[in-house]
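Hey,

The postdoc asked me to send both predictions to you directly instead of through the lab channel. I've kept everything plain text so nothing gets mangled by the mail client. Protein one:
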Amino acid sequence: MLPSPVSSNRRGTSQHLRTFSSSDLKRALSLLRARSRFTNLSIIILTGCFCISVLYNLAFIFSSTSPSLVAYTPPQSILSTIARNSTLENLSHLVIVPGHAIWTGTQPDQVLDMDRWTLEEYQRGGGSYRIAAFVEHIRRGVEITLKDDASLLIFSGGQTRLQSTTTEAESYMRLATSLGLFHPDSERTPHEAYFPRATTETYALDSYQNFLFSLARFHEITGRYPLQVTIVGYEMKRRRFQELHRTALRFPAHHFEYVGIEPSANEESARIGEVKNGYAPYKLDLYGCHDFLLGKRRARNPFLRFHSGLLEWCPDDAGMVYDGPLPWDVYE
């Protein structure tokens, strides 16, 4: 017979084990439950962070193709310096003369002097007929403006030449003033009277920006956008402005006019160059923000100037037309 203490000890051990399990079970379950609540909360937080990260990255990836009409509001320190001429607030017709070169002269007899013009190499061939075309663009722009009291003339063009300390637009304005074009019936004086319906846009680096930035400049001067736009330039650039730039900006065709003036010489090489270096590249890249056309802009911006902007749109599909809201949609 086995001694009885063995049996008693087994029961004691069993009782001891039952006591241990019972005392710690609630504590263990409590800890498990507490950790479970913590784990669920962590999962929710991590899931939320993941979703936000995904949305942020998608927004970044597609930001280059998101329509963006830049609603830039200058700080009050700048706005406080602006007092618009009340006689200009009702103007509705924008006349644009895009710049092609920079005149460095100051006197009327220097207008056709090639040494007074900062030109690209390709502009130097063939004599002064090309310069005569620039002057005729300026004259015609002024004539159109003088005939319409609701018009504002804007000479457009940036500081595109490293050799110059001024802009295309400013030099065109200086030339027009030196010739007395704004006051043709008055006796010419050394100090030409100020003409309020003419100004400059000094940031554009190409023809698309001539159009876009002049719209923005018109708004700066008048507080509104134009109902009618007239552009004066080379006849060979008519299709570029009418078919491509106007389409890219979705400006209404029935409120747009292009006045084309060619050099007196028959310059077939220039027309071929316009198709190759202007019309064709813009047909593939409507907003001029890729590859070839972007490279031209960089080359024309040696002084690192930039505009605050009106429309920021550079789609990966270079032929995609901006489909967001535009101020002149109301004219359709």
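Protein two:
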Amino acid sequence: MYDYLLVGITCLCFLSSGFHAEECKEAILAKRNTVYASAGDSLSLLCVVQHCGDTWTGEWMWRNSTDNNERVVKDGARHQLTNKSLSANETQLLLRLLSVNKSDEGYYRCKGTWDQGKTHQGHFTYVNITAAGPSQRSVLHRSLVCTGAFLCLPIILILARCLSSFPRTRSTRAAEPTAAYRALPHPAPQPPPRCPVPQKRSTSSHKVPPKPQQNTEVVYADISKDALSQQHQATRASSQPTVYSSVNFQSRGKKDVC
């Protein structure tokens, strides 16, 4: 019984290994892509060769945008080629371009060749080289800018602190007299002083004796409607003509008439 189980397990292991072996197929794993780089920068391109453990050779191919003839990229001072094993069935091909220029612009892709004569190629990666912009500065220039900013930072902080404390001191000093003024009691209002009446100067040499001061008396009158009507009637009565009476005088038996 146990012998049959052992044989079955062994067969299953062989079958599973056979299925896995059939799943591995030779191919170049790379996606279509566009890479932008500025003149003078460095650039790295990579692809994965799935060789399934067989003997193979790999290389990088390049062509420009105007010519369809592909050329092999050779290892040199500006082009570095390296291979990195990822697993028993896969290997990574790496192309590093140093100090790129306009002549490096174009289409790049990997190519794999096996001993059985099979050849596989990956998808193109387009490299677009742009002119160096004003943002590219030397290391010395960047270090000088960083040093200047680091030195100016304490000065800016000190000035900001001084400016922030100046208005507070000024407002505190301006508020002190107001607080002292409010603390003092307010005196009662007094009438304005009377101005002396100027005396007239006489042109004569004799001094005029001062006039005695007369005591003025205040007389209150009661004015009513009845008093006004009585006064009006008295005024009308006084406006009537005056009648003179005749007077007789007797002197020595004679009678005079005036």
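Summary for protein two, as requested: The longest helix spans residues 139-183.

Thanks,
C.
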